[in-house]
Specification:
With about 300 residues, the chain is an alpha+beta fold. The protein contains six helices and 15 strands.
Length: about 300
């Protein structure tokens, strides 16, 4: 929700779809052998956490987040690992639960009756997305191996300035995959989570761009009505996040208005959402689980 606490969870968004923080226990996957076939350690040496190379990457990433609200790591996945992950999701995509709904850009449950219906606070946008749940992914598959890697959790924590970070305890939403089929999109919105971590597995043939504003909010309490209006009217220019397959991204979605444009062509847009929390033992609410995966556990 709209709090100062830093966490990355599911929010009604393509990169965080309703962020009710969640936990999970540290996995025994501290070793790097399995990850050598998944992460390009030559570019991103997460397996050398005390090294100068990784420290430089962390420093540069923090600067990028502060300036633009986003940071990307192209080629984070090795090509073979990317192919395996995309193939797994492609095989299971038809079983993913579909969410098709309208929501306001602030992801708040109700409108403000004191303001006109067409005010940015009350204006409705449409989102249609399918989500493949964590428990539907292969236990020994690329995505679960990556998510269970302690080195990744530690790296994300360093980047966002969170000394202690945990994986979610949510059997559905810990690490899930957003699937945007042709004609689907995600309307403008802010995320509930301060930061969202995603991994691009497959882009659409055309369309499906992730567009975002500069950081236009200073806090959760800052509604930034005029700046939001400037974004949706086109007065304030937006940027497009570089999102090639294999790219890991960290995005400050609580402060930047963002959207996924309509997917076109015949290829689905596939993006994994990796969720973390600042406290152990947390999971998504029953309502959120029902909304995005059609069931609760």
């Amino acid at each position: 929700p709209h709090r100062v606490a830093t966490h990355t969870t599911r929010s009604f968004s393509t990169y965080s779809l309703i962020s009710l923080a969640t936990n999970a226990t540290k996995n025994e996957n501290k070793g790097n052998d399995a990850l050598k076939s998944i992460i390009d350690f030559s570019r991103y040496p997460l397996n050398e956490p005390d090294g100068h190379a990784l420290a430089a990457i962390v420093d540069n990433t923090r600067a990028s987040l502060a300036e633009t609200g986003a940071a990307t790591f192209p080629g984070f996945l090795l090509p073979e690992a990317l192919a395996r992950a995309a193939a797994e999701v492609g095989e299971k995509a038809q079983r993913a639960h579909v969410t098709h709904a309208e929501h306001n850009m602030y992801q708040l449950p109700d409108g403000d009756p004191r303001l006109p219906l067409d005010h940015v606070r009350n204006r409705k946008v449409e989102t249609r997305v399918a989500s493949l749940a964590y428990d539907e992914l292969d236990d020994r598959g690329t995505l679960k191996q990556l998510y269970r890697y302690d080195g990744l959790v530690e790296f994300i924590g360093r980047v966002i300035g969170q000394r202690q970070l945990y994986r979610l305890a949510d059997p559905l939403g810990a690490c899930s995959v957003n699937i945007f089929r042709p004609g689907w999109s995600h309307g403008y919105h802010f995320d509930e989570a301060e930061y969202t971590t995603t991994l691009c597995l497959q882009t659409a043939e055309t369309g499906g761009a992730f567009v975002h504003s500069p950081r236009i909010r200073a806090s959760n309490e800052d509604m930034a009505y005029e700046r939001v209006q400037d974004v949706v009217s086109g007065t304030l220019p937006t940027s497009t996040l570089s999102f090639a397959p294999g790219t890991l991204s960290i995005f400050a979605g609580r402060y930047s208005l963002h959207a996924v444009e309509e997917v076109r062509g015949r290829r689905d847009r596939l993006v994994a959402v990796l969720c973390f929390a600042t406290r152990e033992g947390q999971k998504n609410s029953v309502d959120v689980q029902e909304m995005f995966w059609g069931r609760s556990l």
